[in-house]
Design brief:
236 residues, alpha/beta, Carbamate kinase, 35% helix, 19% strand, globular
Length: 236
């Protein structure tokens, strides 16, 4: 199917390269190129949630969990501003909304305002997580996708879908073409956390897990091509 409005979930590592820290403009440029290519050939509205793992990976036992989570939330704002800058330098209108209030830097997230920007052909970037500790950016992506009435949540990864085991370690790993939400939860598949799967299930919001780093894959997904793994209410 062709999607009209999507929510794209990017990991923080997508901005830095696998295993690296910080922000690498080469990877930012690749992201911008994929999005620009997809938008140039589809009338689709795109919202993005980006993680913060390239800057802050979470607390060890010596740090308070709540403070650590807020550090991660701030990291997503940093990543979102970097992504916005690169998108705009590639000729794409972009706007950042944040769940935490930083008035001199970004607008506070309001669903209706974010939706208006989508309708006016902006790529919106949704920073700051849910604004609360204890929630991952996967859950944030599911929540924002539901609030904005997206047609699908696109989970960008470095592998071409969901497998029954790590394909990097097991050459015989089986890729699932389709999964139900219940199957994904019961099999304890680690591609997204249980809260994110549950939110999508409750709102009948399909998820497509795909390899974002293969050039042209975002366009293929948006064009309705059958790549990656579809997680939905039924095993279509």
């Amino acid at each position: 199917m062709n999607y009209k409005r999507v929510l794209l979930k990017l990991s923080g590592e997508a901005l830095s390269g696998s295993g690296n820290l910080g922000i690498n403009t080469k990877y930012l440029q690749n992201i911008a190129a994929e999005i620009k290519n997809a938008l140039g050939k589809n009338k689709v509205q795109i919202g993005i949630v980006v993680g913060g793992g390239n800057i802050w990976r979470g607390a060890d036992k010596d740090l308070d969990r709540v403070k650590s989570d807020y550090m991660g939330i701030i990291a997503t704002v940093i990543n979102s501003l970097a992504l916005q800058d690169i998108l705009e330098k590639n000729g794409l209108k972009s706007h950042v909304f944040s769940a935490i209030n930083i008035p001199k830097v970004v607008d506070l997230y309001v669903t209706e305002k974010a939706a208006d920007y989508l309708k006016n052909n902006y790529v919106i970037i949704l920073a700051g997580g849910t604004g609360n500790p204890f929630f991952t950016t996967d859950t944030t992506a599911a929540l924002r996708a539901a609030e904005l009435k997206a047609d699908v949540l696109l989970k960008a990864t470095q592998v071409d879908g969901v497998y029954d085991s790590d394909p990097k370690k097991n050459k015989g790993a089986k890729r699932y073409k389709h999964l139900t939400f219940n199957e994904a939860i019961q099999k304890n598949l680690k591609i997204m956390d249980t809260s994110a799967f549950s939110l999508c299930r409750e709102n009948n919001l399909p998820i497509v897990v795909f390899n974002f780093h293969n050039s042209g894959n975002l366009l293929k997904v948006l064009s309705g091509q059958d790549i990656g793994t579809l997680v939905s209410a039924d095993n279509r």
